[in-house]
Amino acid sequence: MDQEACLGLLDDTEMDSEDVGDPSAPAMSAAAYFRQIKAERRVTPNVVRIQNPRDEKRSLSPEAKKKKSQWLESVGFQKDVKTETPTTLIPSEEWRTAKCREFGEFRQKMVDRIAKTTPRIIKDMKSPDEDKWHEILLEKCLPEFQNIATNFPNHTGTPPAVPMVLAIPKKHLSQLIEHLVEWSSEEGLSRPIREWIYALLLVIDLPLVQDVVSALRTTDAK
């Protein structure tokens, strides 16, 4: 943009003048504004140091620290206490590697099983809502799988047996994993929920959609 079109013709003598008048008064012309800017620049240090918050913290007097502490307590502030997981509770690298390899082998077996199996069509699993899914998986076993329910004593709902897992339409798998994660946040990461998540991950297509990955990370953080 043309400077002269915005500011008009500026006289060099006006620009170079060091007479800024009252520095607190607003500039009434472009030349006066530039003179004020130049004057401020002359008195500004070449290097400006930012105050370190740690220096400020160290400079507080005992009385000031006490008042600050009292105020934080009055507003309900609670300092986060950093806790570390004992090393004895962290799975070893060998254990994690073995479990990942085992999971990969199970997935391959399921791929072979899916290729040879015609999934059962169960009316209750065509388009259930979240409440219905909760009832099917965690509350009440479907009649079609009552004969194998005794093999899964930890489940009151329909157990994650292979015929049941393969009967779930693939279009529901991602949403169903998200439901299970949400239920775990409300009801706890129970064994039935853990086993159902594991079973669905054995048959779901890869790559996982971002919402499922995010949900699983939330479960891992718990």
Decide which structural class fits the backbone: mainly alpha
Rg over CA atoms: 34 Å
Question: What helical percentage do the residues reach?
Answer: 55-70%
Tell me about the largest β-sheet: none
Strand residues, percent: under 5%
What is the helix/strand order? HHHHHHHHHHH
- Uncertain residue ranges: none
Distance between the termini: 57 Å
Overall geometry comes to elongated
Mean pLDDT level: 79
Give me the number of helical elements.
Answer: 11
Counting DSSP E segments of at least 2 residues, the number of strands comes to: 0
Provide the fold topology.
Blueprint lengths: L2 H5 L4 H5 L13 H14 L9 H7 L2 H13 L18 H24 L13 H10 L22 H6 L5 H15 L3 H13 L6 H12 L1
Helix pairs in contact: 9-10, 9-11
Describe the protein in words:
- By secondary structure, this protein is mainly α.
- The longest helix has 24 residues, at 93-116.
- It contains 11 helices and no strands.
- Helix content is 56%, strand content 0%.
- It has a domain at 120-220.
- The chain has helices spanning 3-7, 12-16, 30-43, 53-59, 62-74, 93-116, 130-139, 162-167, 173-187, 191-203, 210-221.
- Residues 52-64 have a biased composition (Basic and acidic residues).
- Residues 1-24, 45-69 are annotated as: Disordered.
- One of its GO terms (cellular component) is SMN complex.
- Keywords: Cytoplasm, mRNA processing, mRNA splicing.
- It is found in: Cytoplasm.
